[in-house]
Specification:
This protein is mostly beta strands and 557 residues long. 12% of the residues lie in helices and 38% in strands. The longest helix is centred in the first third of the chain and has 30 residues. The N and C termini lie far apart (72 Å). It comes from Candidatus Magasanikbacteria bacterium RIFOXYD2_FULL_36_9.
Length: 557
């Protein structure tokens, strides 16, 4: 009797038959679950189609979404009522299919500046975040921003209502982009930021009128913008290259000054030519007993004036001095912190008319070596071959007395307990601010060495040395890129939708989508049972409200 085994073909046929029978049995046991899974797959495909259509629409419309898509979750459809349902299911589920791409989160209203305000208020009239009345400093700590998945945070930018803590523009440029306070540097013939560590003092006006320091004034001393220059009152001074003002009889000199205790002896802050008494196209500024005095020697003789105000010791003041020979009996004006404080002249008023000269400017000394050395601090020394307006002088003062400083952090925990606020060098000791904004527009800074994380938060310090004026912020933006293909485990809750459906078909069909899809089981054109809303970062979230088998189906892009 022959005994034969099964052939390989027979074995494979038996295995296939068993698999078919098992599938039939499973479907027979729970056909509803299998059909629900099939419909869920269709729902996933539908919301993918919708979100891609919305995304393409935004690309063609400068980042704008179809009208009326906002942060409220609303069912898509044409029905005017009856669209308020509980969308989604409660319980632990996976929020899947996070689509990567550009990320931009903007705070620009009271509804978005919802963090912690200390000594601050939101001004609804002007839509500005500012210091509260009579406050010199305040802190804003933003709410924690959720990118929905791990993200690279690449840039921050903000729009202050006014330039804050920002040095004057180089190369005679004109600022743009600020709502107020843009400076026009037309006519600027000399600009010393006085930030050097040693050596030549660079002229940033673009005219190459560099300065030479003699007898070692203190570099990188205390200043308004970064650093200033300290003079000892003994023998140090600065001599500039020739500054040509021969084509004008109007000159403005502006600078920041801080004095020690009052000194009854006259000290020269600056003087054109080695001795202005010897040239009929010269000018001078002095300080005696902490009061500013100025003088002109012109074609008709001397004109001298003094400020009424006494400068308090160890306080920074912004001084603007205008020499204008086109104004009879008022050839010089002295402005302190943007306010005209010129007193009466000292009996010398020659009514000069001639233009100024082409000569070096001596800062901190009389150039002929006869002394009158200045003791104190100077910063941001600049000369214009024109008269500045009162608005320009006030704006120069405000940009030095107001400040906004920023720190940021990215976090993997939703409460940001694992992140620390840092500045541009990734330490807690530095801040992003306009002191490093060398452009003529609003500040924008690239972020480096910031870990890729899902969550982001920022902090702002508001400062002023004058309680009558406050730094003010219009908006803050953080940008980056969300990683593709991410998913995150979270506890989902059913979310109620609005009573009226949202019809976006006129925006999307037929150019971006043939028709708005609807739920394969209970949906219709009137009520699709797919809901949409805008989320942080100018992203779109779409939910399949009637997903089956306790599954959450949504997508964020």
């Amino acid at each position: 009797m022959n005994k034969k085994g099964f052939t390989l073909l027979e074995i494979l046929l038996v295995v296939a038959a068993i698999a078919i029978l098992a599938g039939i049995v499973i479907v027979a046991i729970n056909p509803g679950k299998q059909l629900g899974a099939t419909r869920n797959a269709a729902r996933q495909s539908d919301i993918n189609t919708i979100v891609n259509a919305v995304y393409q629409y935004s690309l063609d419309n400068s980042g704008l979404f179809p009208s009326n898509i906002d942060t409220n979750l609303r069912m898509l459809g044409t029905a005017g009522t009856g669209c308020n349902i509980s969308c989604g299911v409660s319980g632990n589920s996976v929020v899947n299919n996070i689509v990567g791409g550009p990320l931009s989160i903007v705070d620009d209203s009271q509804s978005t500046f919802v963090g912690t305000l200390t000594n601050l208020i939101y001004n609804n009239t002007n839509n500005l975040l500012t210091l509260a009345n009579n406050q010199t400093n305040g802190v804003y700590e933003s709410n924690i921003k959720d990118a929905t998945a791990s993200s690279s945070w690449s840039n921050i930018a903000w729009t202050p209502n006014f330039p804050t803590g920002k040095a004057l523009p180089n190369n005679s440029a004109t600022e743009t982009g600020y709502p107020t306070g843009n400076i026009n540097m037309a006519g600027n013939v000399l600009l010393y930021h006085l930030d050097e560590a040693s050596g030549i003092l660079s002229d940033s006006s673009g005219n190459n009128k560099n300065g030479t320091a003699f007898n070692s004034p203190t570099y990188q001393s205390n200043g308004i913008y970064n650093y200033g220059l300290k003079f000892d009152g003994v023998n140090d001074y600065v001599k500039t290259a020739l500054v040509d003002s021969t084509n004008t009889n109007k000159v403005t000199i502006a600078f920041w000054i801080k004095l020690p205790t009052a000194n009854p002896s006259a000290q020269i802050i600056f003087e054109s030519s080695p001795n202005y008494n010897l040239r009929s196209d010269s000018y001078i500024a002095t300080v005696t007993n902490n009061k500013i005095g100025v003088g002109i020697y012109g074609n008709s003789g001397y004109s001298t004036w003094a400020a009424d105000n006494v400068l308090q010791p160890n306080v920074w003041y912004h001084i603007t001095i205008i020499f204008d020979k086109s104004l009879p009996n008022k050839e010089a004006s002295i402005y302190i912190n943007g306010i005209n404080t010129t007193g009466s002249n000292s009996g010398l008023d020659a009514n000069n008319t001639n233009n100024f000269g082409n000569q070096p400017i001596y800062i901190g000394d009389r150039g002929d070596g006869k002394g009158y050395y200045f003791k104190g601090w100077l910063d941001e020394f600049t000369i214009f071959n024109r008269s500045l307006s009162s608005v320009e002088m006030t704006d120069m003062y405000k940009r030095g007395t107001l400040n906004l400083r920023y720190q940021i952090r990215s976090c993997s925990n939703s409460n940001c307990s694992d992140g620390s606020f840092v500045g541009p060098d990734n330490s807690a000791n530095t801040y992003f601010s306009e002191i490093n904004n060398n452009s003529t527009s609003i500040p924008s800074f690239a972020l480096t060495n910031i870990p890729n994380n899902r969550y982001f938060q920022y902090k702002i310090l508001f400062d002023t040395s004058n309680t009558n004026i406050s730094p003010a912020l219009k908006n803050f933006t953080v940008s980056g890129n969300v990683s593709s293909g991410g998913s995150s485990e979270q506890t989902s809750t059913s979310t109620p939708t609005n009573s009226a459906c949202l019809d976006i078909s006129t925006s999307l069909t037929p150019n971006y989508i043939t028709a708005i899809p609807f739920d394969p089981k209970i949906g219709s054109n009137e009520k699709t049972y797919y809901a949409i809303k805008k989320t942080e970062g100018n992203r779109i979230n779409i939910v399949a409200c009637s997903a089956e088998n306790s599954e959450t189906i949504n997508i964020t892009q």
